[in-house]
Amino acid sequence: MDTAAVSVPAHSDRVIFFDTTLRDGEQSPGATLNGEEKLVIAKQLARLGVDVIEAGFPFASPGDFEAVHKIAEVVGTETGPIICGLARATKQDIDAAAAAVKPAVRKRIHTFIATSDIHLEFKLRKTRAEVLAIAEEMVTYARSLVEDVEFSPEDAGRSDPEFLYQVLERAIAAGATTVNIPDTVGYTTPEEFGALIRGIKENVPNIDQAVISVHCHNDLGLAVANSLAAIKNGARQVESTINGIGERAGNAALEEMVMALYVRRKLFNPMFGRPADSEVPLCNIDAQQIYKTSRLVSNLTGMLVQPNKAIVGANAFAHESGIHQDGVLKHKLTYEIMDAQSIGLSENLIILGKHSGRNAFRTRLKELGFELSEQDLNKAFLRFKELADKKKEISDWDLEAIVNDEVRSYPQAFQLEHVQVSCGDHELPTATVRLLMPDGQELTDAAVGTGPVDAVYKAINRLVDVPNELIEFSVQSVTAGIDAIGEVTIRLRHENRVFSGHAANTDIIVASAQAYTNALNRLHFTLASAPRQSPQSATHSLETPSRAGV
Ligand code: KIV
Ligand code: ZN
415-528 — its CATH code? Predict the structure, then answer.
C-alpha cells in the first residue's frame, strides 16, 4: 500500500474544493479535451488553488488513462493538489485509477456505486444487500492500494436515507476517508439537501472518521444553493467545475461558491466556529485566478460562458442602466457587492505596443501567469509582432488570446494554409482555401456560399469529406475597438457527437476558418482513437472485462 499521508483532516475548518472540470465537466457534450489541453487546465487549477483535481476516469480509454497519469506526474507535486481518478466499484476500474494516479505525491481513488432504488432496479439490477457488499468490498480494495479513498453513493439525492446511512457506515468502516453525497440528477432543493446532510451527520455512527463532501448537479439551477446548504449542515468538501460545466445542466460552479463564501463570510464564518468578522479565508482558492481560469476552460472546451453568468459572465460587472451607472459613480457599493478586480478581471490595461521588445513581452506574460518554453515564447512573440502591426495598443486580454490560440495549438491532421474570400453587396460570396492534408498533400479548392463564412466552410468541406452539421457559431471581440481581435467558437455535430473549435484573429473570416479546421481536427483524432466508456452508462459488475493498456 502507498503510505503518503492523507492531508485533509476529517473535520476541516475550511471548505475543501474538489474540482471535477476534467472529469464531470469534460462529460459535457462537445467539451472533449485532449491530453495536452487537460494538462494545461490542470496546471491552471493548481494555480487557482484547488485542493483536489479529479483528473479523469482512467478506465474510459488509454487516452484518458494517459492524461490522468501525466497530470499526476506533472501537477501532483509535493506542494500541488491531490490528484484523483474516478473508478466504478469494480476491481478493474480501481486498478486503472490506482495506476493512473500513482506518480502523484498525494493521490486519491474515487469509487462509486448507485444507491437509489431506481438505479438499483433498472441500471444495476442488484439488490440493496448486493450493493452494500460491493461498496464494502471495493472500498476495502481501493484502500489496499492508496491511503485516500473517496466513496460516492450515486443518486444519493433520490436514495432512501436509511439505506444511505447503512452504505456510508460500511464504506467508512472499510476505509473511505471522504464520503461524497451526489445529487446526481439535480433533483433536490436546498432545504431537502441540507436536511439530508444533517441526517447523515446524525445517523451514521462513524461519520466523524470521514469528510462529508457534496456533488450537486444543476438541472433545476440549484447546484450552488444546494452545496451551500450542505456546508451549513456540516459538509466540508464541495465538488465543482469551472463555469459550472458538466453533465446536462452542469455542476455547481466553483467561482460562484468561492465568491459566495467570500462576499458573505460573516454569514459563513460562525458555521466554522469562527467569529463572524474573521478575515481568515474560508477556502484555499486564489480568487484572483478565477477569471483567467474561466477564460481558459471556455476557450479549450468550446463551452461559451453566457453573458449574464454570475461572477464570470461578460455582464457580471457591467452597469447598463442610467440609474445604476449614476449610483456606481457616486459610490461603488450602491450596486456592486464585489469588485471585478477580486476575480482577477484587470482594468484591461494597455501595456504593450509595436515597439515593445521580447523582454517586456516575456515579463508581462509571466506577470499574467503564463510560463512558456523558449519555443512557445518565440511563437507567441511572432504572433504578437504581427498583431502589433495591425493593432496599435495591445492589452492583457489580447495577450491572453494570443497565447491561448498560438501556443496551445495541438496536433493537426488538417492545417489551414491559406484562406481568401471575396464578398460584398454586389458579389457572390466566394472562398478559396488551401489545406495541408494528413498525407502531406496540399490541396486547394473553392466554393460559393450564402456569406463569406458559409463559402469558406463549403470550400473546406470539399477537401475534408466528413459529413457534419454546424450547430453553433459565435464571434466575440476580445476588447473594445474596431481593430479588436475576434474570437470564433464553433460546435459541429457528427453522428450524434459534438466537437468544438476555437480560434482568435483580427480577421474574423480567418478565425472562422481556423476554428472550423480545429473542430475537424478534434473530430479526426477522436474517431482515430479507441472508443471511451462513460462512467455512468455501463453496468456495475465485479467481473468487468479488463481494458488493454492498464
Ligand atoms: O453525478 C454523479 O453522481 C457523479 C458521480 C460519479 C459522483 O458524477
Ligand atoms: Zn456528476
Answer: 3.30.160.270
* Centre of ligand 1 from the C-alpha of residue 184, in Å: 6
Length of the chain: 550
Does the Cβ of 239 fall within 6 Å of ligand 1? no
Query: What is the b/e burial string over 456-490, where b = at least 16 CB atoms within 10 angstroms of the residue's CB?
Result: bbbbbbebbeeebeeeeeeebbbbeeeebbbbbbb
- DSSP codes of every residue in 192-247: HHHHHHHHHHHH-TTGGGSEEEEEEB-TTS-HHHHHHHHHHTT--EEEEBGGG--S
pLDDT in tens, 262-313: 999 999 999 999 999 999 999 999 999 999 999 999 999 999 999 999 999 9
Atom of ligand 1 nearest to the CA of 155: 3
Q: Which residues of 37-60 are buried (b: 16+ CB within 10 A; e: fewer)?
A: bbbbbbbbbbbbbbbbbbbbbbbb
Q: How far does the chain reach from its first CA to its final CA, in angstroms?
A: 18
pTM across the whole model: 0.90
Give buried/exposed letters for 171-205 (b at 16+ CB in 10 A, else e): bbebbbbbbbbbbbbbbbebeebbebbbebeeebe
pLDDT the model gives residue 544: 42
One-letter amino acid for residue 369 of the chain: G
Can you give the pLDDT at residue 409? 65
User: Which bound ligand lies closest to the C-alpha atom of 57?
Assistant: 1
For residues 245 and 302, is the Cβ–Cβ distance under 8 A?
A: no
Ligand in closest contact with the CA of 179: 1
By 3-state DSSP, what share of the chain in percent is helix, strand and coil, each rounded to 5? 45, 20, 40
Up-side HSE of residue 260: CA atoms within 13 Å toward CB? 17
Output the pLDDT for position 325: 62
pLDDT tens-digit map of 15-27: 999 999 999 999 9
Report the DSSP pairing between strands 211-216 and 178-183: parallel
Q: Does domain 9-301 have CATH number 3.20.20.70?
A: yes
Between the CA of 247 and the centroid of ligand 1 the distance, in Å, is 9
The mean pLDDT values, 10 residues at a time, for the chain of 550 residues are 47 91 93 91 97 98 96 98 98 98 98 97 96 98 98 98 98 98 98 98 98 98 98 98 97 98 98 96 97 93 93 81 65 82 76 82 83 87 89 84 76 93 94 96 97 97 95 88 89 92 93 95 88 71 38
Proximal ligand: closest to the CA of 180: 1
Domain ranges of the chain: 9-301, 358-391, 415-528
Give residue 114 CA to ligand 1 midpoint distance, Å: 9
pLDDT at 332: 72
Give Cβ neighbours of residue 9 (< 8 Å, ≥ 6 apart): 211
298 Cβ below 6 A of ligand 1: no
The identity of residue 356, as a single letter, is: S
- Closest residue by Cα to atom 1, ligand 1, is 184
DSSP string, 294-315: HHHHHHHH--PPPTT-TTTSTT
